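re: ur question from the group chat, yeah i did fold both. here u go
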Amino acid sequence: MDHICAITGTLADDESPMTETGPLGWVKITIERQVPNPEYVQLQQLKASMVEQQFDMVKEQIPEGDPNAAAMVRLNVEFQIRAMFSALEAEMDQYVPQYEEAYISAPEADEDVLEVLNSIREALGLMDSMEERTEDEEDSEDPAGGEDT
């Protein structure tokens, strides 16, 4: 899979080590939200349609001018239709997740990318902005990743 920086449009280097979240050092942004499950919505529409069809078939058997009887018959039809689909509906999620992903190249390597990423983080109310590492900080680290003392 090609990873393209959402800010600069540059492609990740093919030789870059890959991690679970993309090229090493890159930032992966995932937006997740819950949306109605289209199958669940369709099932609800089918059930409503079936209730109307069944109610229309027994409507003429309801005494005229008796709104309570009409309401009871409609409720009975709704119960029957709900019972028919209860097992299927129990297995179906009402909402499903929707994901969007974007990748941002290593912010330490490009000052403009770092600036845009930090503005995004600030706009979202995320803590601690990412900082560009200075050459002094890089030189002061030993090969094991700890700092010189």
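okk and heres the other one u asked abt
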Amino acid sequence: MNSSSLTTDRRQFLKTMTVAGAGLALGAPGLVSTAAAATSHKLKLGLDNFAVRAMNWKAHALLDYSASLKLDALFITDLDAFENHEPVYLREVKAKADDLGISLYLGTWSICPTSKSFRNKWGTAEEHLALGIRMAKALGSPVIRVVLGAGEDRRTEGGIEARIADTVKVCQACRSQAVDAGVKIAVENHAGDMQAWELVTLIEAAGKDYVGANMDSGNACWALEDPMQNLLTLAPFVLTTSLRDSMVWESENGAKVQWTAMGEGCVDMKAYFAKFAELCPHAPVIIETISGFAREFPYLKSEFWQAWPKARASEFAQFLALAKRGKAIPSHRSANAQEEQEYQKGEFERSITYCKEVLGLGAR
């Protein structure tokens, strides 16, 4: 078959699945698109500090900022946001959070020793996870968020399944520490590393009594998923979240994804949070805006699928339907560091206003 025939056949296949996906989306039961449904539970609303990473704020400054916006929660997702990791200092941070009425959640990065994203900054993978568990307990965080890696791990030897197996081993090595501390390990679907069903296999293999999910709606799009389908799959395992909106649109080679402030993408956020409130009433809604750039997913090129040997057609069809609803939007590049700080704060604060005023989120 020549390349022209291959492209034509692939386009016809994708067109067929797009129609099927649209039907699935329209026929999905229980998807209420009113903000009123989302307010049936007082969902906590909070900040993921990566949303304002350009500020380079430490824990105390992040708490002050969260309090100024009347947020319920603060998710500090990297260990460098602390002055040190000593018990006395961590108790001070916790005491300040308690005084402000802000729930703390703690996160860190890759614990997969064979991931391209892994760094030995905090020791071995097991030492890194053990440090995170100890800090989470000291801060009163019910979880320690971790990641496997990123999309490039799908092309490593053994593929993502081998990286999942390596991550499971690290979790199991620290099981007793997590259980004794009363801290659960929340693994994120991160930067295109795992689709929701793959993350579920990791959680179940490690042990869902002490391992769950940190659900990232933006990263769902980087894994060729509709965030709604990602939510439906991960809901039974969700411990915490890192959420943003996305704009997805068709491109010459497939589709492009650009993350946006809440309410400015093509995801039906009213329907999403109505279902979220129903399925995850005790999970916090943590906003992690990352905006300004588009990434292309060239699924019309055959080599693209080498990283996705077990992609599910029915779920991919829903992603295609999402791309049909979207439109191209401009990227953003800040001229200097101060402008980037203001841009990040603007994206986040606009998102919080939307969450409170349109979606009815937040306990205060």
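fwiw on the second one: Residues 98 and 104 are 9 Å apart (CA to CA). DSSP finds 13 helices and eleven strands in the chain. idk if thats what u expected
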